[in-house]
Specification:
The chain has 227 residues and is α/β, with parallel strands linked by helices. 31% of the residues lie in helices and 18% in strands. The strands form 2 sheets. Strands 3-2-1-7-8-9 form a 6-stranded parallel β-sheet, with helices on both faces. Strands 5-4-6 form a 3-stranded antiparallel β-sheet, with helices on one face. β2, α5 and β3 form a beta-alpha-beta unit. α4 runs parallel beside α8 and α6 packs parallel to α7. The radius of gyration is 18 Å and the shape is globular. The termini are close together. 37% of the residues are buried. Bound molecules: nicotinamide-adenine-dinucleotide and zinc ion. The site of zinc ion (ZN) has 8 residues, from loops.
Length: 227
Amino acid sequence: MLNLVVLTGAGVSAESGIPTFRGKEGLWKNFKPEELATPEAFRRNPKLVWEWYDWRRQIISKAEPNKAHKLLAQLNAVIITQNVDGLHQRAGAKKVIELHGNIWRVRCTNCGKEYENYEVPLREIPPKCKFCNGLLRPAVVWFGECLPLDALEEAERLAKSCEVFLVVGTSGVVYPAGLLPFVAKQHGAKVVEINPESTPISEIADIVIREKASVGVEKFIRTMLNL
Ligand code: NAD
Ligand code: ZN
């Protein structure tokens, strides 16, 4: 069996109705995600940042995994994802590496405890810690923050050792996740990109499938894996 590793971004969830960051549908009240998903924005105005997360959590809570999530889950390959929506797991994927955290987890800025929170919509914005009443933040990785080291190291190890690195629905401009296709390529993997738009990854991809995720993943499985 082919040693396949998958990297996904917001585009794989677009057909589930979850807006991507890049593209006009990613805008909320005229703010760009880059102006909200940062530690500075949270320090300045935690209420505003939490209102945006509450809006995103409401959308994600109503969303269902789409055909791309389901087909990828059936491949039994490790899925490295930049997404925070948990849809790969809900589609049945067994091994998912979340590089940017999960929108259903919160972390206390006071006592540091991290736990699940599925309240939709949030009763109180910004929400407070159930242990110490401190200010909570989403347990996601913001622009300018470090990725969880164990997840990043495992992702790099997989990129270096796979035969085929399949990239689905990422703009490739958020680092270090966006570098993984280049690491895979350098270590001899064939890189396959599925994205309706061209990205920096397109330039090094061995095969580019210019389709949305559901169509592209189906094509990949039929033509490249002969399944
Ligand atoms: P991005 O918004 O930068 O890029 C999305 C990419 O998906 C674009 O290249 C676009 O051409 C492509 N795309 C759009 N519709 C598609 C479709 N139907 N099928 C396939 N591809 C499609 O997203 P990114 O590269 O993941 O990076 C942005 C950051 O945004 C990540 O850190 C991620 O954590 C976060 N994010 C997550 C979610 C989510 O969890 N669903 C949603 C938005 C943003
Ligand atoms: Zn606390």
